[in-house]
Amino acid sequence: MDFRYADGTVIGNGMPIWVRFDMPVNDDQRAAIEKTASVVTSPVQEGSFGWVDGTTLYWRPKEYWQAGSTAHVEVKAGGLPAGDTWILADAAADYVYGDLRVMYTDIDNHSLTCYQNGTVVNTIPVSCGKPGLETMIGTKVIMDKQSPVVMDSETFGVNNESPEGYKLNVYWAQRLTWSGEYFHAAPWADYAHGYQNVSHGCTGMSDANAEWLFNFTLIGDPAEFVGSTFPVQPYQTIGCWTYSWEDWQLQSAL
């Protein structure tokens, strides 16, 4: 058992506290483990633990983390059974959350509005997924940041030489889903930014705007999408925000 992010990490305000288990925890073992877990936040914020699968326990606040929040988490589950093995030791960590940055993408209007503590700081023309490859709607979380990253259609079973194939070094890339949606620079589609959706599902923008966004965000910042008919599923992103608050509480084993 450990935490996805190291003690002392500064992370974005959509990132839940993320407890990981080496082996899948059986349904009948989860309540005992969860009873040993606690979170103390400053300022005080309502929140709940929830299991998204057998190896992942999240704690998220009811709303995004408030700007300037801190959190202390303890899981005193050392010695308890987890799957076919035992948890070897307790664990604890502290986290810091900075300004509340929210990226709001309107797919139909081809725009990405960037908020910092409730104030608009930039509006970026973008191009999202074209018909048949639509960008998913709902709340995602920036999961990783790389520049460059190799994007290869053969990862998804599409030959590089086919009409929809590609293999590219892509710059200022920020992953939003496990299945491969990103914010990233797409200079080959500058003609479409702000006007037309032409991508394979990612949210593309100019080099300059992608670099600005890359430097503006933290891993863990929330990214909200509206304007298509395909909702992102919990298993496709850091999925605690795909649930309503009422439904999220039902993910707890207690």
UniProtKB/TrEMBL annotation:
Task: One GO cellular component term, please give it.
Answer: extracellular region
Documented EC number(s): 2.3.2.-
State the UniProt keywords alphabetically: Acyltransferase, Cell membrane, Cell shape, Cell wall biogenesis/degradation, Lipoprotein, Membrane, Palmitate, Peptidoglycan synthesis, Signal, Transferase
Q: Where are the transmembrane segments?
A: none
Q: Which Pfam families match?
A: Big_10, YkuD
Q: Which organism is it from?
A: bioreactor metagenome
State if Metal-binding is listed as a keyword: no
> Coding gene?
ldtB_1
At the highest ranks, the source species' classification is: unclassified sequences, metagenomes, ecological metagenomes
Q: What is this protein called?
A: L,D-transpeptidase 2
Q: Which residues form the L,D-TPase catalytic domain?
A: 101-226
Which InterPro entries does the annotation name?
Answer: Big_10, LD-transpeptidase, LD_TPept_cat_dom, Transpep_catalytic_dom
Its BP terms in the Gene Ontology are: cell wall organization; peptidoglycan-protein cross-linking; regulation of cell shape
Query: What are the recorded GO MF terms, alphabetically?
Result: acyltransferase activity; peptidoglycan L,D-transpeptidase activity
